[in-house]
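cron nightly-structures :: item 1 of 1
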Amino acid sequence: MIKAENKWKYKRLLKNVAFAGVCLIVAACCLFPFYWAVVSSFRDGANIFSTDLWPTHLSFENYKTVFKDKTFLCSFWNSAAVATMTAFLTLAVCLFAAYPLARHRFPGRKRVLMIALGVTTLPQVAVLSGMFELIRVLDIYNEKAALVLSYMIITVPFTLWTMSNFMKSIPKEIEEAAIMDGASQRVILTKVFLPILGPAIVTTGLLAFIAAWNEFLFALTFTLTNQARTVPVSLALFSGASQHEVPYGLIMAASVLVTLPLVMLVVIFQRRIISGLTAGSVKG
């Protein structure tokens, strides 16, 4: 009996060790590219091609050059402004759209949600020509408004779906109590639901911000000058002293600076992100 129990404990320990080993391997595969970018950003000259896991000499020349590059700084602030406006407008639209979809039953409700979910599967190139014609007609080419409008096609469907699922998880008794107190639909949404929607708002807002921050195809197509370009396009257009020279060190340093804010945001709001993503997964 004791031997059987010890054998079961050993098997359980072996499974835990194997699972931990797999997790470490996956984590290493995910984090190593970012680590290598950080290490390479501190190398200059021919040292950029070194295979050492840690540079023997730390050089900050790449970062100094990036901070002196006015084009990169302009594109950095363009990305921050566009991503912030996209996240704000996406939350504003989806908050008012998700409430009737989640709390009221009407013909075509499920179809709207299915269409929103289906739009997320469409590749960007499928709507590129149509968006270009729309932006040309609206006369907002090479402006931030063109990027915000095009990015909302990416962010709104997923945000609407997530926000709807989160609202479905709110108990009906809370809404019924507010109705009994004479609260209108607007008051229920803004005074009752909005404080409860904190995790969903943080999750969807941050994901919309990240999607807008990292977007490349629309930013490349709908911008023409350095004053309007965003960070992903500026990184792609980095060039060296000659056409055949690629400034890998500058690209690595700029990539680290661009990625670091996103990493910090995810680390700060990781608990709310997990709470928002898992909301409504059981109920509704």
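cron nightly-structures :: done
The chain has 13 helices and no strands.
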